[in-house]
Amino acid sequence: MKTLKVVICLSFLLLSLVGCSGQQTNPKEQGANQMNQFYKEMQEKATEILKENKNADILAHGYSIYMNAKHIEQMDNSNIKTGEKLFDIHLTYKKGEPFEQGMATKLPVGTEVYLPAEKQERPILIAVVNGKEEVYFEIFNPINNDSK
Questions:
Q1: DSSP structure class, residue 100
Q2: Which residues pair with 103 in a beta bridge?
Q3: Phi and psi for 16 in degrees, rounded to 5?
Q4: Percent of the chain at pLDDT above 70?
Q5: Which of 24, 40, 84, 105 is deepest in the core (most CB within 10 A)?
Q6: pLDDT for 16
C-alpha cells in the first residue's frame, strides 16, 4: 500500500514536470524576443521625439537614442575629448521610415562617431563633422529605461 502511494505521488510529480516543460522558452529565442522588443521600443521613442520636434538632431546606436547636446542647456561640452571610434553614420532619416541603428536625422552619412576619452556622468557619444566635435547625450535606452 505504501509503495502504491509512492508510485502515485511520483507519477503526479512526473506528469506535472512534463506538463510544465513545454511552457519554457528556449533561452536563445527568449533573448532574441527581448532584443526585438528593445529595438521596437527604440523605434517608437524616435518616432515620438520626431513627432514632437521634426527638427530634432538625434542618432541611434545600439538600442539607445542620443540627442545633440547643444539643444540641452545644462551641458558643458568644452572639456570632452574623443576616445575610441565606435561607428560611422550609415543612414539619414527620411520621414515615414523606421528609425534604425546607425541612423541620424542631421548628421551626414559617413560621419564618424566616437566614445568620450574619459567616462562621463551620463552616456554620451561624440560625432566629428568637418573636423568639429559635436556631443550627443543618451536620452533613451530601453534596457535601463529611466528616460532622461
A1: -
A2: 91
A3: -70, -35
A4: 76
A5: 105
A6: 60
